[in-house]
Amino acid sequence: MDWWFHFPAVFWCVTVFTLGLMIGSFLNVVIARLPYEKSLVWPSSRCFACYQPIRLTDNIPVLGFLRLRGRCRACGATFSARYLWVEVGTGVAFLALFLAEVLFNWSGIPGMKYNYLGADGAFPPARFWALFLYHATLMSGLIAAAAIDAEHRIIPAQVTYTVMTVGVIGGVLMPWPWPQPAAAVDAIPPHFTSWILDDVAGKIPVGVQPWPFWGPTFDAAPPGSWKMGLLNSVIGAFVGSLVVRATKWFFETGFGREALGLGDADLLMMAGAFLGWQIPMLSLFTGAVAALVLKVFESVCWNSAPAARQGSSAGTPVSGPVQPRELPFGPGLAIGVVVTWFAWPWLGPKLQFPFFDGTTMLMLCGFMGVGLLAAALFMRRPAETPLTAVK
Ligand SMILES: [Zn+2]
To answer: Where are the transmembrane segments (predicted)?
Structure first.
């Protein structure tokens, strides 16, 4: 039987999934407490209705929830299904990340395919954990931001700025084209003013950070240096924030009400610190599509359970640094980031031309603006009918 040889892969998949469940459990605490400005560590987990502390064994991710069928052991109050979905979702997200980036090396980064049968041994070497934990942090930040936004219509800066800081630090420690040596960049012929030429573009080395700037890199921040990593992360964060702020008025002109908040800008800023500037830019577009799909799902669910939906939004206190919005864009935006990020190894090479050509980039920005305006106009229609009148 040769399955035994694959035991390390199975073992690490189970470990990573379990880690995801545990982090998901922690994210639930963040999601439940942060919007109320409560401490994350004190007091221990307790029932929101009777304030009885939740037993350690009942607090085991997923199993605790399922065993008591999502109810409080003391008073029988029903806990939100969100507790279960965030835990399972984080577990699945971590597993998917580990499969894609470590076991299958989805991005095709040289030397980043875990060879447990050969050179790497049964324990993945540090570079794999660095890559996985770095991106798992972003994934956790996106899940927390999306879930809080869905429930409270805010994206707390505590989540986005904290995670963004990890993104910048990781960028400094793993500068492009890490883990490839800086010499890998020498494959690009020098003195090219642009990287868009087909035969040259294919040779742009991939790293944990995507391609950094237009054309040749600056002498001040050579490839593989911490300055390059810092610039890459900071430019990514800046563009992520800017792209939301710039399109804010496009969207709101179409939507007629405030729909995009600075929290959405913070969400893409956070993603940009990890993924560079190209992915957040594109995520706005994929995020708008995802938000539209979610909106359709939401209206379907609304019709089936109007009371539950009403209760959850009425009991929400207005607190936090950002004013609540009518429509949560965060969940759609977070999905957009993940989709774009995972599609990047396929999308990236196809989009080298627009991303490395100024005129095309400008046209693309205009197109995205108009697209968002159209999407916003489309979303305006169902919202104009008072939902209480529908039933
Ligand atoms: Zn209770």
So the answer is: 6-31, 83-106, 126-147, 159-178, 267-294, 329-347, 359-379
